[in-house]
Design brief:
- The protein is an alpha+beta fold.
- The chain has one domain (41-346): Catalase HpII,  Chain A, domain 1 (Beta Barrel), CATH 2.40.180.
- It has 7 helices and 10 strands.
- The protein has helices at residues 6-33, 43-54, 146-155, 167-176, 181-189, 242-253, 323-346, and strands at residues 66-76, 92-102, 117-124, 130-136, 201-202, 207-210, 216-225, 256-264, 284-297, 317-319.
- Strands 1, 2, 3, 4, 5, 6, 7, 8, 9 and 10 form a 10-stranded antiparallel beta sheet that branches.
- Strand 6 and strand 7 form a beta hairpin.
- Helix 2 packs parallel to helix 3 (146-155) and helix 2 (43-54) crosses helix 7 (323-346).
- It starts with 5 loop residues before the first helix and ends with a helix.
Length: 347
């Protein structure tokens, strides 16, 4: 038998390499989905845990399911341009499409039953790039890791008989994740405001602002309301939708505003631990003013089709080393795919 020539061997090697590519892709998809390592935490498991906590509500987000769309613009002060070369921080006006929501996966939950609220925004720069951010009305995150967040969802699932979380499971969780104790202390004394327009919304996670010279600045940010804080009162608990009703009434009287306050990290501040609030004496910059002028129901509004992925960032902003960011991005994508698929099937 004749030995294969050099050209024949090269051809066979190329064919073998080509055949290997789809096998590698299949293996990669199985790994990402958790099929090859079932003990590994995946975005599917995380979204499933959120769905178990909030119930299955086809066509809605798996978390922060109840909300409304908001529309307005951001007027830059120009002051943050020293920290970031992102176009929206140059003096000028940038259109914004956003969303107010309450935490949890139940779109029918009464507004007063959920203390944590959120503001999500998509900034549409003139150069075509976008900045998307999801912020929460709490000072820090309950847990440091993605696994901790998953464990929290599992530990606080309502018991089938009592309808409440099992105290023993919660206690075991706290022993395993003691970093949650400050959050529990905050939640115990926190009184929600009477309106979305009175809430301060925080990025929680840290990011990097990149300036014109390429230097990186570790930052967090907050949307600080112009309206003064007022606690929710007993009369609000008589209206399951008091937040959206209040917002409509206030916008009918005129636009509502927040200042985008950027906090610059100190030398000792870390970007990978969202459970720790940075000291109040850190440098802050007023980057500009967010003005919200109108609202629409979410299911018929522009915000319904927006995935407020925190890693959709323009040039001039990058992710920090916080592990929660990539997990949020992946879980948001899973949730977005599931609900839009369900919405399409329902049409």
């Amino acid at each position: 038998m004749n030995k294969p020539t050099l050209s024949t061997r090269q051809t066979l090697m190329r064919l073998a390499f080509i055949a290997l590519i789809p096998l590698l892709l299949i293996a990669l998809m199985l790994w990402v989905g958790g099929w090859l390592t079932p003990e590994r935490l995946t975005s599917d498991k995380l979204v499933t845990a959120l769905q178990q906590a909030g119930g299955h509500h086809p066509g809605y987000r798996r978390n922060h399911a109840k909300g409304v769309c908001i529309f307005g613009d951001f007027t830059s002060s120009g002051q943050a341009a020293t920290l970031s070369r992102a176009a929206l921080f140059a003096p000028g006006v940038t259109p914004v499409v956003g969303r107010f929501a309450i935490a949890g996966g139940n779109p029918g939950a009464p507004d007063y039953a959920v203390p944590v609220r959120s503001m999500a925004l998509a900034f549409y720069q003139k150069d075509g790039e976008q900045w998307r951010t999801g912020m929460n009305a709490m000072p820090f995150f309950p847990v440091q890791s993605v696994q901790g967040f998953y464990d929290l969802q599992v530990a606080t699932l309502p018991d089938k008989q009592s309808g409440k979380p099992d105290p023993a499971k919660v206690q075991a969780f706290v022993q395993q994740h003691p970093e949650i104790k400050p959050f529990f202390a905050w939640a115990k004394q926190y009184v929600p405001s009477s309106s979305w327009i009175r809430d301060r919304f925080n990025s929680i996670n840290a990011f990097n602002f990149i300036d014109a010279a390429g230097h990186s600045h570790l930052v967090r940010w907050s949307m600080v309301p112009h309206a003064k804080y007022q606690p929710a009162e007993a009369q609000e608990k008589k209206d399951a939708n008091f937040l959206s009703n209040d917002l409509q009434q206030r916008l009918a009287q005129g636009p509502q505003q927040w200042d985008l306050i950027v906090t610059v990290a100190g030398p000792q501040d870390r970007g990978d631990d969202a459970t720790v609030a940075w000291p109040a004496d850190r440098q802050t910059i007023n980057a500009g003013t967010l003005t919200i002028s109108r609202t629409t129901p979410q299911q018929a509004g522009a915000c319904n089709d927006i995935n407020y992925d925190p890693l959709i960032l323009p040039d001039g902003i990058t992710a920090s080393d916080d592990p929660l960011l990539s997990a949020r991005s992946s879980a948001y994508a899973k949730s977005y795919h599931a609900r839009t698929h369900e919405q399409a099937e329902a049409q």
